[in-house]
Design brief:
The complex is a heterodimer. Chain A is mostly beta strands. Chain A is built from no helices and 11 strands. Classes of the chains: A mainly beta, B mainly beta.
Chain lengths: 115, 115
């Protein structure tokens, strides 16, 4: 079974721009969650999607949004980029709803650099 | 305020010894606790999940304990090998609210096993 894939792997943007990241979960997995990882803040939960609906959200501003398609693929969008948005963005999939009680399979991440 | 602390930023041990990593938390009542391994440039890999009503969980050379009185989880790797060198992350999820949809991660402990 193929793992979680994320595209692109690396991205460089400038302040004020917007960016869209993509995640394809493991086949059959309906839950997709997103995380931001930085050296200072560590790994932080952004949101979880299940069956095309956002089920839970972390403490991030509204500039961070996402969506999930009927095939469970998910996209994450960040608008009006700030320097502090530079991070590794990780996507994880799971076969069931609820990131806390189920094994999360992480992708390799997208490294976003904001200049 | 809520806090998760992993005992030390770095832990160095000799091959064959048991590595013990600590995850302490304050102002949480977690229902679940997970441990992940992360290698440089890669996404985290799920290792073990333990529930609040479980004292101990084992998987091959790995053992996790969960003491809700001490507010602490210990993660043990027995007969450690250089290939076990990685960053280990603990993650908590609290019960209630909008279900178990949020994982809060510790900063991680970098384990180095020397031959």
């Amino acid at each position: 079974k193929a793992g979680v894939t994320q595209t692109p792997r690396y991205l460089i943007k400038t302040r004020g721009q917007q960016v869209t990241l993509s995640c394809s979960p493991i086949s059959g997995h309906r839950s997709v969650s997103w995380y931001q990882q930085t050296p200072g803040q560590g790994l932080q939960f952004l949101f979880e999607y299940f069956s095309e609906t956002q089920r839970n959200k972390g403490n991030f501003p509204g500039r961070f949004s996402g969506r999930q398609f009927s095939n469970s693929r998910s996209e994450m969008n960040v608008s009006t980029l700030e320097l502090g948005d530079s991070a590794l963005y990780l996507c994880a999939s799971s076969s069931s709803l609820g990131v806390a009680q189920s094994e999360q399979f992480f992708g390799p991440g997208t490294r976003l650099t904001v200049l | 305020s809520q806090k998760i602390e992993q005992n030390s930023e770095a832990l160095n041990i000799q091959e064959g010894k048991t590595a013990t990593l600590t995850c302490n938390y304050t102002n949480y009542s977690p229902a679940y606790l997970q441990w992940y391994r992360q290698d440089p440039g890669r996404g985290p890999v799920f290792l073990l999940l333990i529930r609040e009503n479980e004292k101990e969980k084992r998987k091959e050379r790995l053992k996790v304990t969960f003491d809700t009185t001490l507010k602490q989880s210990l993660f043990h790797i027995t007969a450690s090998q250089p290939a076990d060198s990685a960053t280990y992350l603990c993650a908590l999820a609290v019960a209630g609210g909008t279900s178990y949809g949020k994982l809060t991660f510790g900063q991680g402990t970098i384990l180095t096993v020397h031959p």
